[in-house]
Specification:
The chain has 13 helices and nine strands. Helix 1 links the parallel strand 1 and strand 2. The mean pLDDT is 94. 46% of the residues lie in helices and 17% in strands.
């Protein structure tokens, strides 16, 4: 039987400080039938030179050099040329800590005819110091090492944690799936959701903590950007549309609940200090009054009863309620601390 080829996809932007470690840990894998696709996204440091240095000495390493168009476009470019039977994504400032991770995931993928195998991560600091290690909850462990449907996997394993870099994915199911290049936030969530509509066979390996995720406070995830709010609110429509595309009751239910809850959680983010000052501007810019009415109409269609008052007041009042709740929570914590030391 022919060994499956794995395409390892690494989008790169100004990652010269971390790139050697990232590439070396791929080269150190016990499983050797892979191709490494390094996509330089218009870096202005020495990242491109590092990529070429490795590709010149290893024919398995391919380099794509392009203008700075973002991580989603970089991933798409790599998917377009990937030759692998499976693909796995790796960020340039992260690295793999288990030299056997590809082998372990492939053994399961092949023996169980899986379309997705997911492991776990260890959080590290900028210098590689360990911050914490992920451990599966008791609930998740009930579904570990079992062949799961996409709806089971979404509801009981992922539980809202859409970390694309943790999954080995069968490439044949990605033929018509690509990342939206006009998004800067929640791209993984969109990608996974489209993938799970393909009804893949999935497995979760909680003891495979192979991925070193570097906590970089300069990344998009930690930055203040109104576009992140817009992308997050847009997920309401995205999930509603996906709910219409499946007859799987559990999967449909996940998409329906997500279409409603994304409004709630994003409005709560709008109440944070970093966005609150311009809350009225964002409410108008993102047409949140109309979006709230749309969410309410979906709730009626779904037969979904939501008890939170947030859905029944205008968006700005919702923001004020969130801020009041945050202040009360802080006051409660201060009182509890005072009582503790009396």
């Amino acid at each position: 039987m022919k060994e499956p080829l794995v395409s390892v996809i690494v989008p790169i932007y100004n990652a010269e400080s971390f790139l050697d470690e990232c590439i070396q840990n791929v080269k150190s894998q016990t499983y050797t039938h892979w191709e490494l696709i390094l996509v330089n996204d218009g870096s202005i440091d020495s990242s491109l030179q590092i990529c070429y240095r490795y590709s010149e000495s290893d024919s398995r390493i391919k380099v794509v050099n392009k203008e700075n168009t973002g991580v989603s476009d970089s991933r798409n470019k790599a998917l377009d040329i990937a030759q692998g039977d499976f693909v796995i994504f790796l960020d340039a400032d992260d690295y793999w800590i288990d030299p056997c991770c590809l082998e372990k995931m492939l053994v399961k993928a092949v023996s169980e005819n899986l379309d997705l195998v997911r492991g776990e991560y260890v959080a590290v600091g900028m210098k590689g110091e360990k911050l914490f290690s992920r451990h599966a909850s008791e609930q998740k462990m009930k579904y570990a090492y079992r062949v799961l449907t996409s709806s089971e996997f979404l509801n009981y394993v992922m539980t809202g944690e859409f970390f694309l870099f943790l999954s080995l994915i069968r490439k044949s199911l990605l033929t018509d799936i690509r990342f939206e290049t006009n998004r800067i936030f929640l791209e993984d969530m969109r990608f996974y959701s489209l993938f799970f509509l393909k009804e893949p066979r999935c497995m979760y390996l909680p003891d495979l903590r192979f991925y070193a995720y570097r906590k970089n406070e300069n990344s998009v995830s930690f930055s203040i950007n109104p576009k992140k709010l817009e992308d997050s609110f847009d997920m309401c429509e995205f999930f509603h549309e996906r709910s219409l595309e499946t007859q799987d009751k559990l999967l449909k239910g996940f998409f329906q609940v997500s279409s409603i809850s994304m409004y709630y959680y994003t409005l709560e983010t709008l109440a944070d200090n970093m966005y609150y000052e311009n809350a009225r501007i964002y409410i108008k810019r993102f047409s949140l009054k109309q979006k709230r009415k749309l969410v309410l109409s979906w709730m009626r269609d779904y037969g979904y009863i939501e008890k939170s008052i947030i859905y029944y007041v205008n968006p700005y009042q919702g923001v004020l309620l969130f801020r009041l709740r945050h202040r009360l929570a802080k006051f409660k914590n201060r009182v509890l601390r005072c009582l503790k030391f009396q």
